[in-house]
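Need a sequence for this fold. Nothing fancy.
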């Protein structure tokens, strides 16, 4: 009887919590009366309430990480604070870098963690442990975003009643120290049941909480712990049987470029593993990314150097069921496709004509997670015909896992296997083909080289190369262009493949808030921080040499 009573009570409290889970004005999170959290429903209510505050970090997650990268830049229409982020000239008081918004989430997590009694059991099950771990992971993920923004944080693991005055009492943690600390903090909880309360307001709640294996893998990858990272990425991929679907590809339907099939935009929501979600009520808080990006006068836009890189990539056309390359075309179609008559098929970005009949190259990706209120109107955005707002911001998708697994495998001395992630897809057929993957790279038999469960041929568990999604069905048949090539040494092959992985991350996950972290990790792998990142980011500035010299200073990358 006790089991059913707990279930019913939790359900009633859950319905109450769900009503305002996406309302960011909720103050129900802070438990300031000293009461213990001794019931699963109360811990659930705390977790869902924290998520409402967590949403406030979504817009800056995208902007701070992309504007310190090489794929996005600001226009003259952007406000000074945003332009300063893109120009690495942030001053005190910048609206996008208020530390208190991060610490508000952290402090409320600490309140909940301190009050939870995880010793309570029901049929030998610690009933509140999943909520406890979920909140702990949200806290640590928030700390990690702070570290990636500011370079160091004051780590506090208990609730503070006077936040600003008390933070000064805690020592700084460098980004390296924080990565090691979080690994120690969360690793013991691997295997804890991931939270899933079903659908709320049209959003699957299992995607609202930090998945431990990928998060810990990211930290290990940052610290150059390649084997640990590869194992954790693989464990999560295998547990959820995640594959790279050919169905999310953009393709020319003919070799004369008369028409295109554009399916990649659906992957933005279709492959989400972790996200920030927002209310279906247009009156609640939503990120302003659509207004900034898709507007007659946009504030952010794709960097010209990124657009050029995508336009210069080779596309390998092959008809459906074809076995040879039928034509070599230009452009990675995950950016945009332009047919022979000039018609534009936008993907991550594209050209749009508005009332003034001028064509604007705009970021289109955020529109794919938008909701529309028919009959509504946004006076600050004439580009949309109705009130349009973001409901979901993906933080982790399936391709992230595969590309970061490739990054780890490459650094483990397996460049051909890493390259196979991009070109062929990891399947039993690919790994058994010595023309695709060097046999010595899988000879040791590590767990993370076993993809016997992932097939392409059976149609249900297909796994294709990530680059096939933008470079054509004929990519696997290419023998001359998209190749590693003959390199003087294994180390040279690793560097070549690493550059290709970085380019593929740009094409597959552009504008999703990952770019600064991607460049930071790879620069550290090469012991070239910040020179490697400076070399790529400086390309989006008019004076490239001057920008490189300025960015080749580690301190300029961290917001003060």
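Here you go.
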């Amino acid at each position: 009887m006790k089991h059913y009573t707990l279930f019913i009570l939790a359900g009633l409290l859950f319905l109450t919590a769900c009503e305002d889970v996406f309302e960011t004005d909720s103050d129900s999170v802070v438990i300031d009366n000293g009461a213990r959290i001794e019931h699963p429903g109360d811990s659930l209510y705390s977790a869902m309430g924290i998520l409402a505050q967590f949403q406030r970090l979504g817009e800056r997650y995208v902007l701070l990480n992309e504007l310190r990268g090489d794929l996005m830049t600001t226009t003259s229409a952007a406000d000074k604070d945003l332009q300063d982020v893109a120009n690495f000239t942030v001053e005190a008081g910048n609206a996008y870098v208020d530390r208190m918004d991060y610490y508000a989430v952290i402090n409320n997590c600490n309140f909940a963690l301190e009050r939870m009694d995880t010793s309570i059991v029901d049929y030998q099950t610690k009933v509140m442990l999943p909520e406890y771990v979920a909140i702990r992971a949200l806290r640590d993920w928030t700390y990690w975003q702070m570290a990636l923004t500011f370079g160091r944080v004051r780590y506090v693991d208990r609730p503070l009643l006077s936040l600003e005055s008390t933070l000064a009492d805690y020592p700084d943690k460098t980004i390296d120290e924080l990565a090691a600390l979080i690994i120690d903090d969360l690793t013991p909880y691997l295997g804890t049941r991931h939270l899933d309360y079903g659908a709320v307001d049209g959003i699957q709640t299992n995607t609202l909480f930090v998945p431990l294996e990928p998060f810990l893998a990211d930290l290990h990858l940052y610290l150059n712990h390649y084997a640990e990272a590869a194992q954790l990425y693989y464990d999560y991929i295998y547990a959820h049987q995640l594959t790279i679907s050919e169905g999310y590809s953009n393709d020319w339907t003919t070799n004369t470029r008369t028409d295109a099939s554009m399916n990649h935009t659906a992957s933005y929501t279709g492959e989400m593993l972790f996200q920030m979600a927002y209310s279906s009520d247009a009156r609640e808080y939503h990120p302003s990314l659509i207004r900034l990006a898709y507007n007659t006068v946009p504030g952010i836009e794709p960097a010209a150097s990124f657009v050029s890189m995508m336009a210069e990539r080779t596309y390998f056309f092959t008809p459906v069921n074809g076995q040879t390359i039928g034509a070599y075309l230009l452009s990675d179609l995950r950016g945009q496709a332009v047919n022979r008559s000039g018609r534009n098929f936008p993907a991550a970005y594209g050209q749009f004509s508005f009332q003034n009949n001028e064509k604007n190259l705009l970021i289109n990706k955020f529109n794919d997670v938008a909701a529309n209120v028919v009959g509504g109107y946004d006076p600050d955005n004439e580009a949309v015909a109705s009130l349009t707002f973001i409901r979901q911001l993906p933080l982790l998708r399936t391709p992230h896992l595969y590309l970061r697994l490739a990054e780890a495998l490459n650094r483990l001395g397996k460049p051909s296997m890493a390259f196979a992630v991009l070109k062929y897809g990891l399947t039993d057929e690919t790994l058994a083909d010595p023309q695709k993957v060097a046999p010595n790279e899988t000879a040791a038999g590590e767990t993370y080289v076993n993809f016997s469960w992932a097939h392409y041929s059976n149609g249900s568990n297909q796994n294709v190369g990530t680059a096939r999604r933008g470079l054509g069905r004929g990519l696997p048949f290419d023998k001359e262009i998209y190749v590693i090539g003959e390199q003087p040494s294994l180390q040279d092959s690793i560097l070549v493949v690493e550059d290709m992985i970085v380019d593929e991350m740009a094409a597959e996950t552009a504008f999703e808030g990952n770019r600064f972290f991607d460049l930071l990790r790879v620069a550290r792998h090469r012991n070239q921080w910040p020179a490697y990142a400076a070399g790529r980011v400086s390309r989006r500035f008019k004076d490239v040499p001057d920008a490189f010299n300025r960015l080749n200073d580690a301190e300029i990358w961290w917001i003060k």
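For context: Confidence is low (pLDDT under 50) at residues 1-21, 24-33.
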